[in-house]
Amino acid sequence: MVSVGHGTWRSLVSALDWGSRGREFKSPRPDLSPDTWTRSYHDTGVTVNDNPQVEFTLDVTVPGKEPYKATLTQVVSRLAIAGFQPGATVPVRVSPDDPQVLMIG
């Protein structure tokens, strides 16, 4: 398993695509899920500034709530993609209004 500090992900994830799900992150204080596991991912074929848009399947654990499976589509730096291998832990921000609205970083 791979684990990387939160600051590292913030510097490596290049662009955040909240609009890809047709929803917006309304809460200014999202929950942080530091124990989210990458189950799988695949390239969607879309690139932004030469960085791939990736669809992730994640196992999300928010403290005080039941763990759940979620899907997230986000643009990721080409330099960071190796850190998202299945089994890797990644910090994820979760909307308190809708637990399916996520952001890596």
Written overview of the protein:
A hairpin with a 7-residue loop joins strand 2 and strand 3. The protein has one helix spanning 6-12, and strands spanning 31-48, 51-60, 68-75, 89-94, 102-104. The two termini are 18 Å apart. It has one domain. The chain contains 1 helix and 5 strands. Strands 3-2-1-4-5 form a 5-stranded antiparallel sheet, covered by helices on one side. With 105 residues, the chain is mainly beta.
Which descriptors would you attach to this protein?
1 helix; 105 residues; 43% strand
Protein structure class: mainly beta
Oligomer: single chain
Count of domains? 1
Topology as H/E string? HEEEEE
Sheet of most strands: 5 strands, antiparallel
| E-strand count | 5
Distance from N terminus to C terminus (CA atoms, Å) equals: 18 Å
Percent of residues in helices: under 10%
Overall mean pLDDT score?
75
- From the alpha-carbon coordinates, what is the Rg to the nearest angstrom? 13 Å
The number of helical runs is 1
